Amino acid sequence: MEARIEKIKQQLQAQAYKLTPQRESTVRVLLEHEVDHLSAEDVYMLVKEKSPDIGLATVYRTLELLSELHVVEKLNFGDGVARYDLRNENNRHHHHHLICVQCNAVEEIMDDWLGELEERLELEYKFQVLDHRLDFHGICRNCRDKAKE
Q1: Run of H or E residues at 39
Q2: Residue percentage of the chain with pLDDT more than 90
């Protein structure tokens, strides 16, 4: 975890920002709950446990800054709630999601299946893809199994 925090600190410094204690607390919560796709309010509640003096506005500003700097990805799964997901520095693109419309479960797809499509877009449309995100909305395995019972 410390190596990832150091990497994020360097990303902030490259853009003339500091990793303040409040920002670090927010980043630590995101790292500790990386698979959870937390909302700003979720992050705030978890940060407040460790840093009781932090305000909700500070967490919002931190998340927006991290989103602008592409440290986190701001996601909307169709439920009207913005969620935040740390970007993996080893992947060129953000990962994809399977979103269950019945139970709201979210499963991550770490493979990037769109490389050939990006190449085709470059060749045929002279369009350089910088990033992409693909979300599939449907019914998860658990909900389908429950419906069969």
Answers
A1: strand 38-39
A2: 56
- 71, two tokens: 């440290």
CA-to-CA separations, 114 to 63, 70, 95, 135, 141, in angstroms, rounded? 28, 20, 11, 13, 24
- Strand pairing partners for 86? 72
Q: Which amino acid is at 4?
A: R
For 31, 87, 94, the CA distances from 4, given in Å and listed in that order, are: 8, 11, 17
End-to-end CA distance of the chain: 42
User: What one-letter code names the amino acid at 106?
Assistant: V
- Taking only the tens place, the pLDDT of each residue in 29-82 is 999 998 888 999 999 999 999 999 999 999 999 999 999 998 898 888 778 888
Phi, psi at residue 128, to the nearest 5°? Answer: -90, 115
Helix (H) or strand (E) run with residue 144 in it: helix 141-148
Residue with the two structure tokens 């986190």: 72
| Whether the Cβ atoms of residue 71 and residue 86 lie closer than 8 Å to each other | yes
Task: Report the distance separating Cα 149 and Cα 144, nearest Å.
Answer: 9
- Residue partners of 118: CB distance under 8 A and separation at least 6: 129, 132
